Amino acid sequence: MERLGPGVVQRAQAGDLDAFSEIVKAFEDPLYTLAFRFLSNGGEAEDAVQETFLRVYTHLPRYDQQFKFTTWLYRIATNVCIDRLRKRRATASLDSEGQDGDDFVGEWHDRLASSAPTPEEMLLRSETCNEVQRALSDLPTPYQTVLILRYIQELSLQEISDILHVPITTVKTRIHRGREAMKELMARVPVS
Amino acid sequence: MTCEEARASMHFHLDGDEHLHVERARVHTAGCMHCERHVRALIEVEQELKRLKRYAAPSGLTERILQSVQGIPQKRPLARVTM
How far apart are CA A45 and CA A37, in angstroms? Predict the structure, then answer.
């Protein structure tokens, strides 16, 4: 909540658009980074941030101030990204029936290659091809989620536990397994 | 302590949890080349993740978000249950 002035959330809850705009400005950058790390795609990340803030806006009157605002916000953003990944994986498995079908890397490389890039997109492409990002996106979603929240959003284990509604011991187990899986994936020789 | 036990415990060390088991794992790791290499690779994973770029949202996103909520009704607050 340190990013927001006093009373901003309360005013936004009462429908004050200026206050809501302050919330958007304070959090759009970290939420865009979060979404990009989940989805490995700039356009989808932008859509996910828009969807997140739309849900935040409509549900703000139901936000309970006894809980930390950022926990509530990150829970919505994380759920939006996980939903999108789930839909993407469901579609990909339908599309690739009869094939071995677990190669999402090829799918988003094809998509990225399809139109002329802006300089901003060029930067995102180089990042998408980044070995670390690729390994991160190949992880099972529960591991990917905790590693993004822990290392990219730099949240505490307690905050991650609150966001995901799981015990700290579960968060730790997922981080441990996620680190092991990342280590294995990063040790693979990159396919050129 | 086996290599497997040491590797599992060293994850707690990476999380900043220090207890007796972790101390024993550190002793094991210091004397075991394979575990030492394993833990170094895990630290490298952590560093690589921390090094990933943070982005600024695309320009104009704030305005697009604010436009998208214009005229959208907000949910009613949930009724508070008072004891």
Answer: 8
